[in-house]
Structures are given as C-alpha cells and as structure tokens.
Amino acid sequence: MDSRLAYFRLLAEEMLTPERLQHSLGVEALAAELAPKYNIVPDDARLAALVHDLAKGYSLEEQIRRAKELKLIVYPQDIENPQVLHGRLAAYMLEHDYGVGNQDILQAVANHTLGRPNMSPLEMLIYSADLTEPGRDFPGVDKLRQKLYHDLREGTLACVEHTLNYLNMNKKRVHPLTALTYASLKSECDSKEV
Q1: What distance in Å separates the CA atoms of residue 154 and residue 157, rounded to the nearest whole number?
Q2: Residues 6+ apart with CB under 8 A from 156
Q3: pLDDT tens-digit profile of 126-181?
Q4: Per residue in 140-166, is it b (16+ CB within 10 Å) or e — as a string?
Q5: Is residue 106 within 8 Å of residue 94, measured between CB atoms?
Q6: pTM of the model as a whole
C-alpha cells in the first residue's frame, strides 16, 4: 500500500465508528476488485472508497451547519434529507483540509449518495460499491452485484433503480439529483442497446 493510502486509512480509522469503518473497507475491497475491469486507477478507487463517508462522524445538525457555512446546499431537498450532505462535506474536507486535488476522486466522494448526470466510471463505481459492498445484506443485493460485475453503467443503473424502488415503497421523496441521475443513466444504457 502506498503512503497516501496508508495515511487516509489511518484517518478513516480515527474519524469513523468501527461499523462505518468496516463498511468503508468493504466499499474499498469491492472498488479495488472492479477498478481494473473498468480501466479505473485502482489506487484512486481505493482512496475514494476509504474516505467517502469521512463526514458521517458529524451529527446531522453539524452537517447542515457546515454545509450552509460552506455553501454546499444545492437543493431545498438537501435540508429536508440532510443525510445526503456527508458526501459533499467529505469532498470539501479532502480538498481543503487534506490536499486531495484529483477532481475525479473528489467528485466520486461528493456524489456517492445521489449520483449526478454523466458520472465518470469512478463515480459510478463508488456509488454502486457503496450500495453493494460485501457487508450489505438485503434482498436483491446479489443481483445488483452480478449486474455490476457484468457492466458498470448497467449495474449502476440497477443500483439507482433499487434506490428509487426503496424510496417509493417507503413513501419517501426522490431527491431531484437522483431523478436526474436515473434519467441520464437510462438514456446512456438505452442508446448503447440501439
């Protein structure tokens, strides 16, 4: 392991609960396994995975306060569902407090909860690995993993569809960015089939 990864692994160990750290290590393992298949730099995938939840250690109130202060609130729904803020906060911290300059890594961290239209391969990988890492155990997770192993874009689309179904079943609002992510991925997958 290179020294940069070792540094951020220690940081994750300091900032995350044991359960959250275990999840992040699971995301790292899956991202590292799939990165070469999709021509993603493995160390970039491992780093983004290790730190994607770095801001989860803050309370939701603290996340809202910091996000407002740093002007990271983009949609009114960000305040209604503050659990979506930790990715943007973590990306901000990585860039401004820890000197991470790789924009693809920062975007992958920032967008791992909601996605965004036209995601890069690394963004899709972290978004999907967050949902399907080996510690996840919900009905249908094996099918999501299979799709992810078969095709990154189609696997990510399946993950977004799973999230939309979960939100609809639980009568929760869909964040506009998730809806835009779905539309973008669906269009890309449909045009690939033609």
Answers
A1: 5
A2: 115, 119, 124, 127, 128, 148, 185
A3: 999 999 999 999 999 999 999 999 999 999 999 999 999 999 999 999 999 999 99
A4: ebeebbebbeeebbbbbbbbbebbeee
A5: yes
A6: 0.96
